[in-house]
């Protein structure tokens, strides 16, 4: 069998799929390939819901799940273009002496923060509260995780906050 025949056979075994693509403005489009192999937009408003997410177990399954209220929030966030990941990310990376990098899940885990000796936290997000204001010093940067956001104006104040924290014997996450 020639290479061309092998490729043609493999191509005929491929199944048709639709791809949901989230654009920078948060809107979602569904695309599929046409007969020419080019992507075309499908005219439908099919957004996945949290119940279609394989990482989320249905309520009453006996394992960890989310409430209906949380499901609605997650579904809305997806429609606005956010990637929703409900699995906690509790990795706290030691970058340099006194400097750690962690997710919002790390910032919400008091025991993990204390076990790493964190005293200062840079909260660079929108909609994520400073969980332990009585226990840590915070530097809040209200910014979206989006390529169109300008982080330059926030960079120097954050670096000054981190430098001061480390020079005073603290640790920053």
From TrEMBL:
- InterPro entries attached to this UniProt entry: Prot-tyrosine_phosphatase-like
What the entry lists under Gene3D superfamilies is as follows:
Protein tyrosine phosphatase superfamily
Q: Which GO terms describe its cellular component?
A: cytoplasm
A GO MF term: JUN kinase phosphatase activity
Top-level taxon of the source organism: Eukaryota
The protein's matches in PANTHER family, at most eight in alphabetical order, are given as: DUAL SPECIFICITY PROTEIN PHOSPHATASE 19 (PTHR46377)
- Protein's name according to its UniProt entry: Dual specificity protein phosphatase
């Amino acid at each position: 069998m020639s290479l061309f025949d092998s490729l043609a056979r493999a191509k005929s075994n491929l199944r048709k799929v639709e791809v949901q693509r989230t654009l920078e403005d948060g809107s979602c489009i569904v695309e599929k390939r046409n007969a020419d192999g080019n992507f075309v937009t499908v005219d439908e408003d099919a957004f996945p819901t949290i119940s279609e997410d394989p990482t989320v177990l249905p309520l009453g399954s006996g394992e960890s799940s989310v409430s209906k209220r949380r499901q609605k929030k997650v579904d809305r966030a997806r429609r606005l273009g956010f990637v929703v990941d409900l699995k906690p990310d509790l990795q706290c990376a030691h970058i340099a002496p006194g400097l750690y990098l962690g997710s919002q899940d790390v910032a919400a885990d008091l025991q993990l923060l204390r076990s790493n000796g964190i005293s200062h936290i840079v909260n660079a997000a929108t909609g994520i509260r400073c969980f332990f204001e009585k226990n840590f010093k915070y530097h809040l940067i209200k910014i979206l995780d989006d390529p169109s956001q300008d982080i330059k104006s926030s960079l120097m104040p954050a670096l000054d906050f981190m430098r001061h924290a480390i020079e005073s014997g603290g640790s920053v996450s």
